[in-house]
Predict the structure.
Amino acid sequence: MNDVLKEKIQLILVKNRINIILIMGAMGILLLSAEDLLPKDKKVISEEFTASQYQQEMEAQLESLLSMVNGAGKVKVMITLEGGKENIYAWQEKKSVDEKSNTDSSDDSFTKRETYENEIVMVTNGSEKTALIEKTMEPVVQGVVVVCQGADDIKVISDITNAVSVALNVTSNRICVIKMH
């Protein structure tokens, strides 16, 4: 039955190949032109996280993950962060060279002066000018405390420590797993 269905689909595709290609092309053109129909005044909403929100989100995700560890039971997580979110801006270097030869003196001396200027690259978006962000560095995890019901079992402690270490790229000496009362 499965082979018959495959053969029918292949037969339809072979017979209607040109129609399918034309329909896909028309859909592509429609999608490209649909951008012109959207209002241009709308601003793009970006998700900006504060360090506190980032910390809470990471704790929630880690709690969800660690609660699935066999034998862990109920889990609470606390993460400490070093610093906050940091934007690295794009810089443009301008170099100017000023060369002069001294024709007044008899030794035919030559002077060359190079100056460098660095400035942040600015991007214009409508009437707004903003600095171009090259990359954003998230806060660095300094330590993790995990409190769970199953922490009296050394296997559970080991599994949780390994999971946290891999998930957050933190060494095991920065992870503490303790028993929940």
